[in-house]
Amino acid sequence: MSSRLSLKFQVPVVLIALEGKLGKASCRSIKNVSIYNVLEEVKEELVRYGGHDLAAGFTIEEEKIEKVKRYFMESFSKKTRNVEEKKKYNIDMELPLEVVGESLLQDIEKISPFGSENPHPLFLEKNLSFREIRKFGVDQRHFNGILVKEGKEYPAVGFDLGHRIHLDTYLAQSFDIVYYPEKVNLHGEKMIQIRIKDIIIKDEFYDIFIKS
User: Fold this and answer.
1) Which domains does the chain carry?
2) Which is nearest to 191 in space by CA: 157, 151, 143?
3) How far apart are CA 187 and CA 41, in angstroms?
4) What is the pLDDT along the chain (212 residues), one digit of tens a residue?
5) What is the pTM of this model?
């Protein structure tokens, strides 16, 4: 249950079940928010604990639950706020998918390698739809699919974005994406793939888009 809630709402989740005077907790978190580190910060209040960054568990005495709950809420609020700030991207330009090709990839390659000091150029494209989508990975955190615009199709992949896609509604929705093109080898064939860094359903807010 904690895993499904965390994946759906993209927030850390702690569920505690009482057994007598002890509470046993199941914890799930999101990328860049370590649930294990938070448990380390309150370990003196816990009977026992264990796990890793994204999944953990602990046992706690009933009378200490409220105190630890308040600490969790304050800590998670700060950490998730920092994560949201890190999600913002500097977009180099609005670039329609139809101009993506070998020439553009060669121009991008000229300014590589990319890293923290030289971030990959990012582009914005609007009003796209998907012909198909498949989720994959642990908890279906990632997805790949076929983007469609004006009858043309483009293979695409999005890592840690599976929670943004609803398989029962995506065919009727329109999307804006932050992306960059990349050359990949799919099924033995070299092709250009659209690497999606963020995706927005058209009726959502655009506060992650910051044009440079």
Assistant:
1) 1-81 (3.10.310.30), 93-203 (2.40.50.460)
2) 157
3) 46
4) 777 777 767 778 999 999 999 999 999 987 778 889 999 999 999 999 999 888 999 999 999 999 999 999 888 877 766 555 555 678 999 999 999 999 999 999 999 898 878 989 999 999 999 999 999 988 788 999 999 988 899 999 999 888 888 888 888 888 999 999 999 987 788 899 999 999 887 644 333 333 33
5) 0.60
